């Protein structure tokens, strides 16, 4: 009888856990075998949730590799929860209504402070609309990674690059609360497990629907994929235009910001990195 996907996945996970216990040294992650016992496989976090050991935060960590190694499981299945994330995640319907009302009143205050009349016809419902909109634009805070991935992890003996590029991304700059938009390319080299292609885009969407800086967003996407399936390497490149640079401040329309994060063999192997960079430019 041909084994099912679930049986193959269970077998692969078992081998990965066994290899972790048999760590005796390190080899090139691009050419090592997941069940060889010669390279350590980080522990698979139940529910895919994780956070820094210091507590709940969304830090910009200088080393993505160090960040991945220092993560601990998050009991709620969230990735880098912020200070008030848990209260938003567990809010009752009454608390959600109260939060929206509080936001609405805050927007009315803003309109009044800039010299507008919150009671004129065109602005009468603007505070309520914006409150709902900003809650939607930041819904990534309450997305559980287990729900995002939704068991779309499959056992597959594929050891070549998987790349999804030109994923549209929009987020809010945490410094000025104005949008930045662009495209992101995500690649990984499997280690016996592959992730449903749409989940790469969904992971990017989850972390973009927060107050962000592009540098952190790029790293969070890469580390989330690393934590989910423990591939041999992950590469993420993002290009975006920031309205805080184009419509205010320095006012430079057309300027593009590029950020990247390379983990595993994409970081250690120049040829692998160059192949990825060549593919995303085509």
UniProtKB/TrEMBL annotation:
Q: Give the Enzyme Commission number.
A: 3.5.4.16
**Which SUPFAM superfamilies does the record cross-reference, listed alphabetically?**
Tetrahydrobiopterin biosynthesis enzymes-like (SSF55620)
**Classification via PROSITE patterns:** GTP_CYCLOHYDROL_1_1, GTP_CYCLOHYDROL_1_2
* All residue ranges annotated as the GTP cyclohydrolase I domain in the record: 104-280
Residues of the region (Disordered) are: 19-52
Pathway it works in: Cofactor biosynthesis; 7,8-dihydroneopterin triphosphate biosynthesis; 7,8-dihydroneopterin triphosphate from GTP: step 1/1
What are the UniProt keywords, alphabetically? Answer: Folate biosynthesis, Hydrolase
Among its keywords, does the record have ATP-binding?
A: no
Transmembrane feature ranges: none
Pfam family for this entry, one:
GTP_cyclohydroI
Entry's family note: Belongs to the GTP cyclohydrolase I family.
Q: What is this protein called?
A: GTP cyclohydrolase 1
Q: Which organism is it from?
A: Lentinula boryana
